[in-house]
Write a structure and sequence with these properties.
heterodimer; A: 290 residues; MetI-like fold; 3% strand; flat; B: 256 residues; Rossmann fold; 2 domains; four-stranded antiparallel beta sheet; 7 helices; globular
């Protein structure tokens, strides 16, 4: 069934020509080159599927069909269509996004103020930092049994895991941001007679905002990875659950479809976070807004 | 060092020494510095790096304390930073997250809205940044950012402005322009200025008196008075002697 490779091979050759040539404008490259990379990836995927097949013999007619062991890109596509058709895709995507939103939101709500406070007050830093550093390296996955013990096989378990996964990078980012504020800013503020809380309001907070946004972006990336593990074990809905459930039903096309959705949504979330960097108040902190 | 019969000095530095304790020894940064600055005077502190001129400024500004001796302003001892004596840092002291307007507003938060508005507007115009009120520092040139720093400092109407190499980060052409601007503003507002530089021409162009400092330990080598109207053409013959003297005090033999 080698014919299934030809469209991809054609695209890949075209991409190679394009990559080597300089005739195309930057804007064309920005669109075409990533698409070409995707095509090469799909071609490799298809090629891999063609390598290993099993025979399915129809006992009545005696005909033999060759079937892929691993789902092809097209089979994955079909499965994705089926999932979005019957509504499971939307339902489970919303479930995952909801858990991440709540867990990540709580982590930001607590992590940013506590982190800023740790950065601003040496005493608080000394009190809390050793504990934070001890908890931080524990993988969020290690918390799964405890989450189930406390919250059961419920949303709350997954939300708790997302919270644990995102709060430490956010906290660390916030206090590191405060610690790296150039002293000249704080000195100026003191010179102009600003009181301690005003220094915080007008200098410390705005000065650390860009780095806080960077740490939020980083933490959201982690949260999105952890949600899969959380949903595989701690709940029975969401994209992570789709993966375990489909695996148990030996539906690998569905596994790949769910993975595809996780990737796309990850890009969308990161794009959203990147928009925050474009605000006037923080743009100065990013030398080049990507 | 005030001429006899003149009123009490604005800034009085009396026997100020500063010693930094290090692991094995002590580093004497300033030794027995005496200096009087009268109100409305423009004084330059000139010296090579490491002569303690920045430390002296920090002490006068209330950011650091002398090991011995004392500093008083209007006969009151300096006990900490105070908006009546404002430091102008190099342009990097301007807040990048705030617009020009909000930067200048920094020290004016206790004024009522109308007065605040009028002051901000006045000082933004004074430094020639009208039309840039909503601009963020990243979109300004180095010279313009330096003007923001100056406007922000002057807006609180300080008695004494402390400038620690404020033009050091600018290119030479912008520096020349900023010197002229600074003189114009000083002549308009008549505040007392203490200005640190290691540039001989700069000190000659700006100062009523140039305080030449010598390093390790930092002390005042000599005070050179420059009694000439502005603007000064510091390349003209009458300045040759002063220039040679200043360079001589800094240990540089200069052939003209």
């Amino acid at each position: 069934m080698r014919y299934s490779l030809w469209p991809f091979i054609t695209v890949a050759i075209a991409a190679a020509v394009l990559y080597g040539s300089r005739i195309f404008k930057e804007r064309v490259q920005r669109v075409v080159l990533p698409l070409a990379t995707a095509a090469i990836f799909l071609a490799a995927w298809q090629f891999g599927c063609d390598l290993k097949k099993y025979e399915l013999r129809d006992s009545a007619t005696g005909t033999v069909r060759l079937l892929e062991v691993f789902p092809t890109p097209w089979q994955t596509c079909v499965e994705l269509g089926r999932m979005s058709g019957d509504g499971t895709l939307l339902r489970y995507t919303v479930a995952s996004l909801y858990r991440v939103a709540i867990g990540f939101g709580l982590a930001a709500l607590i992590g940013i103020p506590v982190g800023l406070w740790m950065g601003w007050s040496t005493r608080t830093f000394r009190a809390l930092n050793p504990m934070v550093q001890a908890l931080r390296p524990i993988s969020p996955i290690a918390w799964i049994p405890i989450a189930i013990l406390w919250f059961g096989v419920e949303d709350a378990s997954a939300i708790f895991l997302i919270f644990v996964a995102s709060i430490f990078p956010i906290m660390t980012g916030a206090y590191t941001a405060v610690h790296s504020i150039p002293s000249v800013y704080v000195r100026s503020a003191r010179n102009f007679g600003l009181r301690r809380h005003e220094v915080f309001r007008y200098v410390v907070f705005p000065a650390s905002l860009p780095q806080i946004i960077t740490s939020l972006r980083f933490a959201l990336g982690i949260a999105w990875m952890v949600i899969v593990a959380a949903e595989m074990i701690a709940v029975q809905s969401g994209l992570g659950y789709v993966i375990t459930d489909a695996r148990n039903g030996n539906n690998y096309a569905r596994v790949c479809g769910a993975m595809f959705c996780l990737g796309v949504l990850g890009i969308v979330l990161d794009f959203g976070m990147r928009q925050l960097q474009k605000l006037d108040e923080v743009r100065w902190g990013f030398s080049k807004v990507s | 060092m005030t001429p006899s019969g003149s009123p009490a000095p604005k800034v009085a530095v009396r026997g100020v020494s500063k010693v930094f304790q290090r692991k094995s020894d002590a580093l004497v940064v300033l030794q027995g510095v005496d200096l009087d600055v009268s109100a409305g005077e423009f004084v330059c502190l000139l010296g090579p790096s490491g002569c303690g001129k920045s430390t002296l400024m920090n002490i006068i500004g209330g950011f650091d304390f002398p090991t011995s001796g004392d500093v008083s302003i209007d006969s009151a001892p300096v006990e900490g930073p105070d908006p009546r004596r404002v430091f102008v840092f190099q342009e990097y002291g301007v807040f990048p997250w705030a617009s020009v307007w909000d930067n200048v507003a920094l020290g004016l938060r206790r004024l009522d809205a109308a007065e605040q508005h009028a002051r901000i507007q006045h000082y933004i115009e004074l430094v020639g940044l009208k039309g840039f009120e909503k601009t963020y520092p990243a979109e300004l040139s180095g010279g313009m950012r330096q003007r923001v720093a100056v406007a922000r400092a002057l807006a609180v109407k300080p008695d004494v402005v402390l400038m620690d190499e404020p033009l050091g980060a600018l290119d030479s052409l912008t520096r020349l322009k900023m010197r002229a601007e600074l003189l114009r503003i000083w002549q308009e507002e008549r505040m007392t200025i203490l200005f640190v530089t290691h540039d001989v021409e700069e000190s000659m162009q700006l100062a009523d008196r140039v305080v030449v400092m010598s390093p390790r330990p930092g002390r005042i080598a000599e005070i050179v008075e420059i009694d000439a109207p502005h603007p000064r053409e510091v390349d003209s013959p009458e300045y040759v002697e002063i220039k040679a003297r200043l360079y001589g005090l800094l240990g540089v033999t200069h052939s003209f």
